[in-house]
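user: can you give me the structure for this one chain? tokens are fine.
assistant: on it. calling the predictor now.
[tool input]
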Amino acid sequence: MAHSEGTDAGGVGGPEQSSARAPGGASSAGVSVAGGRGVAGAAPPAPWAKWAVLAVCCLAQFMVVLDISIVNVALPAMQTDLEMSAGGLQWVVNAYTLAFAGLLLFGGRAADLFGRRRVFVFGLGLFTLASLGGGFAQSETQLIVARAVQGLGGAVLAPATLSLLMTSFAEGRERTRALGAWGATAASGGAFGTVVGGVLTDIADWRWVLFVNVPIGVALVAAARVVLVESRGQVSRLRDLDMPGTLTVTGGLVLLVYAIVRTETSSWGSPVTIGMLAGAVVLLGAFVAIEATTANPLVPLSIFRYPGLAVANVIAALLGAAMFTVFFFLTLFMQRVQGYSPLRGGLAMLPMPLMIIVASQLVTRTIGQLGPRRIVVFGAAVGASGLLWLSAITTDGSYWSHVFGPIAMMGFGMGCTIVSMVAAATAGVPIRLAGLASGLINTGRQIGAAIGLAATTTIATHHTEGRLRHGVAPPEALTSGYSLGLFIGGCVFAVGVPVAFLLPRLRRPEPAAAGLPAPPARPAADDQQAVAKSAEV
């Protein structure tokens, strides 16, 4: 019995392809692009179709990452307009972070199980509506709730973007180029957030840092319905989902992230923080036990047999800690010490995202010859060196002598690291687990960012307070604290260098890269079963 839509097991170029035939005998992959219907036996998609998918997915991912940092420069204006408390202001940021980090794994698995296009459109619609609601917020509570719903939409949307690319591009040069573009948008979105936020806050109003998502979101929903084609999931009913696993991992991650972010206002040793960390450990331990015994796990533990994915998650956590350390401390340094306006401070960050884009394009041209492991090692070393150089900031130092070079160097290293890390993480992962792999990578980065920023903020704050008690002038004391935070971030990034050596050596896909037919790959044991089932159908 033939399905009217491509099965999840039929990723383009993957080992689990559908046996449906297009007119003229051409094989049609189970997950196709363009046309909006995915009818088995339809003609192969136009050459532009995959690149239209890439554009839609990258813009959606950019929007999600942008909103992690875009509100930072608008916080003072929000506080004045809505008469927000200091605690409420903090929750404008934390509500998004908690919902986003806590639900990423669920979002990734939902894309695999219920259909990637369906989940993509749902997450994008939710994100867009929440942005509209946040822009119209008239109170502190309304704004915080809108940001939490934004985070939920982003957690569902972000993993779907990467899994759609994995199902649309075969392993080899084309997928590397696609992952390079996706990695560049994922890495540069956070840096561009400070730029866009500064521009909108200065020339318009703080509400536009949220309203800006609405026209983009509406356009992307319309485009998604045209260029994306559904990849059928493995379950069609919510009750078939691993709800115990979903609840325990979501609760555990939310408790973990909340315990970390609250250390900005309370100590690590407070009873509440310790209790939350203990609760997170219990819930996450229960999650592992559930996944090891349930028939349809949210996270099949066998996915960690792919060594590239496991190591890449550690690198993603280290990278997340380093990136958010830069966004936080450098923004504060330029505005509080150097006296930059939000707009000028945002523009001053531009070299970093621009170099991320440059590096990502270079990586896509060299990764086939060098392999991802070498590039991750190189990128982590360059990025860490740039961040350590940046930690030498002084109160009287100029932008060109103390900031421009370090952030450009750091951006180049981050661009190299992210693209090659994602390529290593997704190599060999079955198409049916593409969304989960994406969710794991994003979760690792968010957890690393939360832990890294909380730890460095605590250390830097205590250092600054100590300097003030010893009679040091506020600008020098603040700069000393920011410098220490950046130095710690650089050291964390540097840990990625030895960790990257644990990435597996990937075989260079010479035949495919040269445009020659590649030898048929032998499916892994678990993939052979899916191929057999497809043949039976």
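assistant: here you go. The chain has 20 helices and no strands. The two ends are 6 Å apart (CA to CA).
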